[in-house]
Every structure is written in C-alpha cells, then in structure tokens.
Design goal:
Number of strands: 5
Helix content: 40-55%
Structural class: mainly alpha
Oligomer: single chain
Radius of gyration: 21 Å
Distance between the termini: 35 Å
Bound molecules: tryptophan
Strand order of the largest sheet: 1-2-3
Length: 327
C-alpha cells in the first residue's frame, strides 16, 4: 500500500473546514494507504503560544482526530515531538536547502512582513515540514491548497539530497482535494473557513452544540435574490450552504438545489444535517476526553510505530551524508 503522511497544527478546536476539507479524507485513506498522521507541535513553536496552551491543544487535537475516526489500529497517529528524528532530519535538510528558496515562501513572507524581529524557526519551518514527510518515505501528502509551495520545496530538497548523496529519499507528491471540498466562512463566503481569522459566527466548530450550529447557519450570509441555485461565482453564500448539505447527505450541490424553493428551508435542513453529521464525533470526543490515560497510551503506541520507520530513514540519510555511526 502506498504511504501517505499529513500533519496538522495543534491550533485549537477543529472547525468544519478542517473536518470536511481534510480530516474526512484522512479517515478514508486509512483503508487504502499505509497512513501516517502527526500533530505538529514543533511547528506550533514558531507562533507565540503559551506552553500550557500548546500542551492542551496538542492533546485536544489528537482527541479530535481520534473522534473524527482516525483509528490507531488502521493508521499511525502520533505527536511530532515524540519522534526526535524530525528535528535531526530537519538539520540534515537545512544543510541542503538554501536561504534563497526559503525566502521565497509566501507563508514566510506573509508572516514576517513588517516585523523587525523574525524567528529563525519561522524561516526554516518548511524544512521541518520536508523532514516530516521524507522520514516516512511518503509518496503522497494530502494538504490544502495553501501548502502547495511547501510541498514543492520538499520535493526540491529531497531531489537535491538524492542527487548529492545517492537515492535515499522518496520524493513526495502533494495531493490537494478538489475545490468543492473547500468550506467557506458563513459570514464571509468569499473566503475559506479558517481558524486564523476571527469570525466566530462564520466558523462552525466541530464541538459546537446543536443550538450553536442552528444559530450560525440561520445567520449565514446569502444574497438578495430568492432563487435557490448552485452558483459559487455569483451566489457564494448560498452555494456554500448547498455544498455543506450535499456533503453531509452524500448528494451533489446541484441536486440539493433542485429540492428547495426557499432559503429558510435550505438553512433549516443544512443545520439539521450538520448537527446529525457531527453528533457521533462529539459523543466520541466526550468519551475520549474523559479517559486521558487511554489517549496517552494510544499516542505512545503511535510514536513507537512512527519511530521505527523514522529512525531507519534517518540512519540511512545520516550515513549517506557522512556522519560517523556511533558504536
Ligand atoms: N504546514 C502544514 C499546515 O500548516 C502542517 C504540516 C506540518 C504538514 N508538517 C506537515 C502537512 C507534513 C503535511 C505534511 O497545514
């Protein structure tokens, strides 16, 4: 089975965009791939984050992933910092990557713009990401559109390493879900639902209770017409609702549009479908949150599985660049 790997930042509560756009595909990939998923707590250190908050978010993100259906019996789920080879491999790759190519990363440029003090970790962030990927010989990396450039860099660096030291690293390919998998902000339907923009009413959290979900969907921005039609270009808000209801019920947005005359009815059914979609996940989450020992045990088991693969790759790479093997 082909190897896939992906990573998620421990950035707090999962929202519908993360879940429908990414995590649901991770769950499906478990059965068709040898899948590795990590909570990238080391990457989160590039942000200003309180230590206790980072720790609890890392735990919570792992719980969210388990609740969403990642099953440690069918995939390898682990916390990045539990496998020390990530930072070791990142160093080897930092000695292959160049300042020029890292300086061209859009994410770096955006996050560092206008700051007079920029952390080195923010600059080398994509190299650590490349290390995450090559350590597991991942062929395919499911990521959002915003990560394409980082994946291109990972390919570039892996190729350069192989060229210089021999064919030791698998060159990964990005796998970006189709546009339809993009969930838009309910208040600003022209932009993606995102944790990093503050739009509480526009963001449906996986943890939201039914009343919250109903409220957010009811207040979702649509348009001044009264025709239910799937047309993301001119009717982004309404089309987003149609897509959500379609995804939740396994239909197509156009098909869903045909069943409604009034915006209000569409909103009501969309809210109900989302409540129903999220209910099992929320129940599992509650269960797991009440059993921290079990979560810790699952993560330890995941780290152990991950370490086996990662240390073999790291050893291979370390010997290839000329590091003396310890006796
Ligand atoms: N940078 C990715 C993001 O912000 C997270 C990430 C870290 C990742 N390491 C990875 C994604 C490895 C895929 C593979 O979404």
């Amino acid at each position: 089975m082909a190897r896939v790997l992906s990573g998620i930042q421990p950035s707090g509560d999962l929202h519908l965009g993360n879940y429908l756009g990414a995590i649901r595909n991770w769950v499906t990939d478990q059965d068709s791939h040898d899948a590795f998923y990590c909570v990238v707590d080391l990457h989160a250190l590039t942000l200003d984050i309180d230590p206790e908050v980072l720790r609890s978010r890392t735990r919570d993100t792992a719980i969210d992933l388990l609740a969403a259906g990642l099953d440690p019996a069918r995939c390898t789920l682990f916390v990045q910092s539990h496998v020390t080879e990530h930072t070791q491999m990142a160093w080897l790759l930092e000695c292959v990557a160049t300042m020029g190519e890292l300086g061209r990363m859009t994410q770096f440029k955006e996050k560092s713009e206008g700051k007079d003090s920029i952390r080195v970790g923010l600059f080398t962030y994509p190299v650590l990401q490349a290390a995450d990927i090559v350590l597991y010989d991942a062929e395919r990396v499911p990521v959002g559109d915003d990560q394409r450039q980082h994946l291109e860099l990972a390919r570039e660096v892996a190729n350069r390493f192989n060229h210089r030291f021999g064919d030791h690293l698998v060159v990964p390919e990005a796998s970006v879900p189709p546009m339809g998998a993009r969930v838009m902000d309910l208040q600003h339907p022209e932009r993606k639902m995102s944790k990093s923009v503050n739009s509480p009413l526009g963001t449906v959290l996986v943890l939201d209770d039914p009343a919250e979900i109903v409220k957010k969907v009811k207040k979702a921005v649509t348009d001044n017409e009264n025709e239910v039609r799937y047309d993301p270009e001119t009717k982004p808000g309404l089309s987003n609702l149609l897509e959500l209801l379609a995804v939740a019920t396994g239909r197509t947005p156009t098909d869903v549009a045909g069943s409604y005359e009034r915006y209000g009815d569409l909103k009501k059914d969309t809210a109900d479908a989302l409540v129903e979609l999220l209910a099992p996940l929320q129940a599992r989450r509650l269960e797991l949150a009440g059993d921290p020992g079990e979560v810790a045990r699952l993560l330890a088991q995941g780290a152990e599985k991950a370490r086996k693969v990662a240390s073999a790759t790291y050893q291979r790479a370390a010997r290839a660049v000329g590091l003396l093997a310890p006796e």
